[in-house]
Amino acid sequence: TLFMTDSPVITSKKDAVLWITLNRPERRNPLSSDMIAALSCAITSAGKDANTRVIVIRAAGPAFSAGHDLRETRRREDEGQSDWQARVDQLLQDCAAMMTSILHTPKPIIACVQGIASAAGCQLVSACDLAIASEDATFCTPGVNIGAFCTTPLVGIGRNLSRKHALEMALTGDQFDAATAERFGLINRSVRASGLEQATQDLAGKIASRSAESIARGKSAFYRQVEMPLDKAFELANQVMRDNLTSEGDAQEGIGAFLEKRDPEWG
Hints:
It contains ten helices and nine strands. By secondary structure, the chain is of the alpha/beta class. It is globular and about 70 Å long.
């Protein structure tokens, strides 16, 4: 009954974990314009919800996501070249904005992957902070097979993987299994298909028990410093660490609890 709805995404809550489910199983959950808009909206609203501490992105049906809906990229009848380019440009910009919103959301976001994650669907996995996959999941950037090299998926994937692994995915278009994706660094780990949801919930629950304030500051600082030269990275990290340690927030409670050998009570 959970998936009997017309909405491109559906949300459900378990404890402090919000599950966002891609809900176009019959079409392998393409990142169409309506899916991108619905997913963006769900991520934004979960990011602002004080009762949500961790977000999980998963999918209904046998596939995680087949990537962009290629029908949306075709030229329409009576559509001029500039209108066609503008429409496709908007689709790609909306997709990029949705991907970067995952990085800017203060809550940790975990991908829970079953089946195939292809092209922009693979990019979505790379954009999430963490990823757990079923051992029978597969990952690919097959644009090269249809003459459209996966340049945009490689932005996120190329920041997760070594350059040679990222380019191997993009140049071959081959499907890589979950064990290889784990070795490449695209996912944290793979688990039995029957235990995927539980393993994801366990990981999300562990993170949800930590200080949300500390995680929000830390996640933001991580993504900012990782693109910086080393000296600038230390400058930023030191500043965030100093602010954490010298404010009347969760760090004071956490350090106090540690020294007093008790469990912390987060705000």
